[in-house]
Amino acid sequence: MTSTTENRNTAVKQNGHNGEGNSREKTYKKTPSSALQGSIQLGIGYAVGNLTSKPERDVLMQDFYVVESVFLPSEGSNLTPAHRYPDFRFKTYAPLAFRYFRELFHIRPDDYLYSLCNEPLIELSNPGASGSLFYVTSDDEFIIKTVQHKEAEFLQKLLPGYYMNLNQNLRTLLPKFYGLYCMQSGGSNIRIVVMNNVLPRSVRMHYKYDLKGSTYKRRASRKEREKSTPTYKDLDFMQDMSDGLFFDAETYNALVKTLQRDCRVLESFKIMDYSLLLGIHNLDIAENENELESFQTASDGKRPGGQKVLYSTALESIQGATKSKESLGTEDVIGGIPAKNNKGERLLLYMAIIDILQSYRFIKKLEHSWKALVYDGDSVSVHRPGFYADRFLKFMNCKVFKKSQCDQSSGGL
């Protein structure tokens, strides 16, 4: 998930995170975060650099199943540089296929390398119960997330269908996957995926929601609410914004159409338990708080001539290339979707469908069965993919997103 939350440097002890004595540094599978970050950057630097020597060609079916591997000893080798981390092996999955995906979104190899390898990665706190580590690049372009073996395996199986879907339609709120890798060291396998960043750090999110269209235990915990930027859930949204969010007709239609198409794709892959991550930036509150600087780029040291990744923002994901930015008067608006609340306040929405690497396997069927015994089965989070998609869409179209009564598609929002 691409999802992002506030920086947190304390060690944690849950779901694969292990605190190391009194150290403040996180570890993941007994690997210190600093070593993991450095190894990831070295491995990706080698993998992408090595890929530049391979000629451009069409992606073939066998390309989805290729795994390339390189050993990077700390003392260096003829192929790899010396480094200060323990020896490790770095695997790159389907390198030609992921190169194709990056090219679809106009991500040049040098931009990809610069973003991921030139500056230290920024560690983010875990927004959910998955136990994953999240990093964001200093230029705000990419999220790096650790994934479990089953998730990585499922993504590999999805790649041919993912390729077909992107070829038919680039307008999607599904995650944009740019790379899948595995770092092996000390007997541990740490798998990571590189994705688009959904919530830019340089724009303050006044509200954040993780929405599934479910009401069973879908309220943020007390611990979550104590965070500086908590992520709320479905029942919280219905309480906070009972009237929903309003769009001009053109934007509403584009958003609903994109969500419908994405949900049908997920249903066809037998995927369920995904969420809509929704960040809300209130322009009127920001102006009152003198936060207009929130539209500035995340880093003053942004590379000269660096290009913005196309189709990676929420607005571009539903419209294609942004049509107009005159209504907000700046080119630094980072792709938010314009909307209003019931008070008429101007909003920018940032959203994506996240956590799609869950298939409706036996364990999920079992989970739904016992939950249904103690609660209304139609309201629990885990459900068969078709029902899940229908309920998700109904909630988004009826409770969350609404067409403005007064159509202001000419720019009134």
Describe this structure in words.
By secondary structure, the chain is an alpha+beta fold. The protein has 2 domains: 27-196, Phosphatidylinositol Phosphate Kinase II Beta, CATH 3.30.800; 207-288 and 313-318 and 331-403, 2-Layer Sandwich (Phosphatidylinositol Phosphate Kinase Iibeta, Chain: A, domain 2). Helix content is 31%, strand content 19%. It contains 11 helices and 15 strands. Strands 3-4-8-9-7-6-5 form a 7-stranded antiparallel beta sheet. A hairpin with a 2-residue loop joins strand 8 (177-185) and strand 9. The radius of gyration is 21 Å and the shape is globular. Mean pLDDT is 80; it is low at 1-23, 296-301, 303-307, 322-332, 368-377 and 408-413. Keywords: ATP-binding, Cytoplasm, Kinase, Nucleotide-binding, Transferase. Residues 1-34 are annotated as: Disordered. Residues 32-400 form the PIPK domain. This is PIPK domain-containing protein.
